[in-house]
Structure to design on (246 residues):
């Protein structure tokens, strides 16, 4: 009885020790697998472990605070891959800036236009459709409870405004047919309109709100509308020319 009693106590002590060590390892080191059932909140430092440098870990990336498992795209996101700079971090801005070094790899969207913000939201939607959603990154876009921050709500509102402006611009520009255009090594660039229509440069009114810059496009106008303000004749092109060489 005495020996069996002692062995029982010793067995319990060993089991408790193993359990404590297991919990400690789980706490200190990232998991080797991320599945939809284990979606969780990530800290930036923890996310950095999943950067494709360790073959034993999945590859994760963040965009607008949403974290995705992109391991199935290892040839792109793994070490040496063309998109490896996105792995292990939230580099939302780089999806539109093309700056993949230093300060360019940031989740800040400060100064981006509504169309650029919309493009990043579209990229996030692409990852939702294509890869496994793994959780949320605590920081700029989600708080410690996993709730969306005011910053994220502002980003999504700006993207929605961009989508509305793009649709409005598309409808308005459809009322004025665009010029035909072509380029050849012999003739260079040319724009032209069909019979009884004339090419003019016209401002795109929603472009400042969309991109922060004013731009123009070539549209075709009938003779009766050529006198309206805001139309610009191409340099070197006759007033009633149907074709202009640029």
């Amino acid at each position: 009885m005495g020996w069996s009693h002692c062995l029982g106590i010793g067995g319990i002590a060993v089991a408790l020790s193993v359990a404590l060590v297991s919990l400690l390892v789980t706490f200190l080191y990232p998991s080797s697998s991320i599945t939809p059932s284990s979606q969780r909140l990530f800290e930036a430092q923890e996310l950095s472990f999943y950067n494709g440098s360790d073959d034993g870990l999945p590859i994760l990336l963040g965009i607008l605070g949403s974290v995705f498992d992109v391991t199935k795209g290892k040839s792109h996101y793994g070490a040496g891959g063309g998109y490896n700079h996105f792995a292990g971090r939230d580099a939302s801005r780089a999806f539109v800036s093309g700056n993949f070094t230093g300060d360019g790899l940031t989740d800040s969207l400060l100064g981006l236009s509504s169309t650029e913000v919309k493009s990043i939201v579209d990229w996030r939607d692409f990852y939702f459709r294509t890869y496994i959603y793994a959780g949320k990154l605590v920081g700029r876009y989600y708080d410690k409870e996993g709730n969306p921050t005011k910053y994220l709500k502002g980003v999504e509102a700006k993207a929605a405004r961009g989508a509305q402006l793009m649709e409005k611009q598309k409808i308005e520009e459809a009322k004025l047919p665009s010029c035909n255009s072509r380029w050849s090594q012999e003739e260079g660039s040319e724009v032209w309109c069909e019979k009884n229509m004339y090419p003019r440069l016209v401002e795109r009114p929603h472009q400042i709100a969309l991109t922060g810059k004013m731009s123009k496009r070539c549209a075709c106008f009938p003779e009766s509308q050529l006198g309206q303000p805001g139309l610009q004749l191409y340099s070197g092109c006759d007033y009633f020319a149907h074709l202009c060489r640029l």
